[in-house]
Amino acid sequence: MENEEVIVQRLINKDKRAFELVFNQYFNVMVLYASRFMDTRAEAEEIAQDVFVKFWEKCDSLSEDSTIKSYLYRSVHNSCLNAIKHDKVKDGYRQHVIHVMESTYQNEFNEDDPDALRNRIQREIDKLPPRCAEIFKLSRFEGLKYQEIADHLDISVKTVEVQMGKALKVLRESLQDLKNLRDAS
Amino acid sequence: MEEVLAKYFSGEATNNEISLVETWRSESKTNAQAFFDAKNVWLVSQPETAPPSQVLDEIINETQGKVVPFMMRSWVKYASAAVLVLAISLLFVLNNSETDNVYSTQSMADGSEISLHGSSSIEVIAFNDEIREIKVTGKAYFDIERDETRPFIIHTENARVQVLGTSFLVKANGEETEVCVESGLVGFSKKVDGSEVSVKLTKGEMGLISNSNKGIIKRNIRDLNYLAWKTKVITFNESTMAEVEQVLEDVYGIDVSFDNPEFKGCKLTAKFNKKKPKDAIEIIARTFGVEYEFTNGKAILKGKGC
């Protein structure tokens, strides 16, 4: 964020407009980050919202050299971790998520640039076979249901299922190197 | 597996497939990491959306609500033609407003505002350069514009409330009239054997006039939620679920029931700051670790509760 020091100073003064800037820049990023760990989008949104509520309540006690981004990431990270730890169901998957989260606690969150990630995944999608890429884009970017994709492209729903699975597999493998997708241990 | 995962993330999976995925991802560390990675691919490939301005408003307003608890920023001020016609006829019963199903707010010509709960009503007796006089039935919150030359007088079946400029709640059901003072000074009086008995009430005090009682009862306001129907800030402090049920009904106009009557005896300590009814129910259900249903303004809490 530009002029972070100025923004922090304005937040200390409880400047609503400054909070709005921070909110607009980071809210969706935080929902996305929380979504990695939480099972539903509703839970992720709730956590992000709570973090912003507390941030706004307490921003007049920020220290002048605070970094908004790492403060928010750290808060969301800790809130998610707490929520999962307090979840009654702790199956193997959630245990693994707890492990991943605890071992990435001290990570430098600055590498977590969603725009860079988005560009990267766009390039990887473009490398997929054309039909596969088209189907994946219709699903993810246009929000079409499998049946709608099938109707639109005049193919069977089964073909959509197969191509979506293929796209997910290829993308997952080609993005293996991304540090923030990995278990840091 | 990737095919089922893609269906799982895109909401196309059947119930069987959902449980298949959730079992599979718990079976080994490799599976768990594969699920985690696939999910991240799914998330980062989602299109960018605008930040939700409604959430921003909620956050800014919610916190303000805490600092200045009774500053009703979003009072609905409306004066439809129908209301005007009725006002001219000096009798008007307000309909529920568009923004809240439990109350509506009317602005008077002098800038005073009256919020009426549920089917409560007011009747204008005289509203001119010399006097402001109305009658209320039911529950209403008044925020009266100060005017020392024109007292504001509210009549109920059995009592009279006189103010210059202040905010307070009046609850009148024919048998009893209760006044809770939010700010300023309120004169509260009744006729006893032809002469008038009167008390003065200030901020935080309530007065009660009852047909079954000779005098006027005066004490501190104990009900934490007497204005919650208007502020949507609800506080429960070791409240029984039977009380909670009443408050939620009063504040949201929803019907709360329990499939196990024992639940009514459970106690709740919680604060809800401008929550939506469904969210409040969900928080309660989670607090007690029970399931719930919420449809068409009817909530059912399931299980024993505590």
Automatic annotation (TrEMBL), chain A:
Residues annotated as domain RNA polymerase sigma factor 70 region 4 type: 119-169
RNA polymerase sigma-70 region domain span: 25-86
GO biological process: DNA-templated transcription initiation
Presence of the UniProt keyword DNA-binding in the record: no
Alphabetized GO MF terms: DNA binding; sigma factor activity
One Pfam family linked to the record: Sigma70_r2
Family under the similarity heading: Belongs to the sigma-70 factor family. ECF subfamily.
Name of the featured protein: RNA polymerase sigma-70 factor, ECF subfamily
Organism: Ekhidna lutea
TrEMBL record, chain B:
TM ranges: none
A Pfam family it matches: FecR
Residue ranges of domain Protein FecR C-terminal in the record: 234-300
FecR protein domain location: 105-186
One Gene Ontology MF term: sigma factor antagonist activity
InterPro entries xrefs: FecR (IPR006860), FecR_C (IPR032508), Ferrdict_sens_TM (IPR012373)
Name of the molecule in the record: FecR family protein
Organism, scientific name: Ekhidna lutea
